[in-house]
Amino acid sequence: EYDGERNSEGERHGRGKAYLPNGDTYDGEYEHGFRSGQGTYRFRNGACYIGEYLQNKKHGRGIFFYPDGSKYEGDWVNDQRHGCGEYTYANGDTYTGEWFNHNRHGQGTYVYKDTGSKYVGGWVNGNQEGQAELIHLNHRFKGKFLNGNPVGHGKYVFDIGCEQHGEYIQSEQVK
């Protein structure tokens, strides 16, 4: 069901409201039958997207509210989180930084709500990787990470002024 403007060809064009057969609704702008421009899409499962569309896909700036209480606010390209944005997780943790094809990728900051600790540095395909700093309440670690773990040379810096330099090496797991 559609209630809104149409062009001379009868396509949805301009402002309108659509009630989809699956229970979802869209209220926003259309161009030649496609969601294009600013709009609000409400999913039957409780999720909601408020932002820009291009050819029926989330594209531009927008906010997505997920059913679990998490939300993403930032750039979208071709229905994917892509560019810069902030994701607030259901547990209160946040990631602010770069996104590529729906994954944390590039430079970003992850804040752990429970401890107040922060990871500031590189990300590859959603994983902590590359040069980074892991900042805790009374000390920090500066070094490289791979798959979320420190690797290679690094140093701990303690608030009292002490530093501990060393190297992380992967140990063989005995089964």
UniProtKB/TrEMBL annotation:
UniProt keyword terms in alphabetical order: Cell projection, Cilium, Cytoplasm, Cytoskeleton, Flagellum, Meiosis, Repeat
GO biological process, one term: axoneme assembly
InterPro entries: MORN
Family annotation (SMART domains): MORN
Composition bias, Basic and acidic residues: 1-13
GO cellular component entries: motile cilium; nucleus
Membrane-crossing segments per the record: none
Glycoprotein listed as a keyword: no
Subcellular location field: Cytoplasm, Cytoskeleton, Flagellum axoneme
Origin: domain of life: Eukaryota
Region spans: Disordered: 1-22
Role summary: Functions as part of axonemal radial spoke complexes that play an important part in the motility of sperm and cilia.
PANTHER family attached to this UniProt entry: RADIAL SPOKE HEAD 1 HOMOLOG
Protein name from the UniProt record: Radial spoke head 1 homolog
Source species: Thalassarche chlororhynchos (Atlantic yellow-nosed albatross)
Name of the coding gene: Rsph1
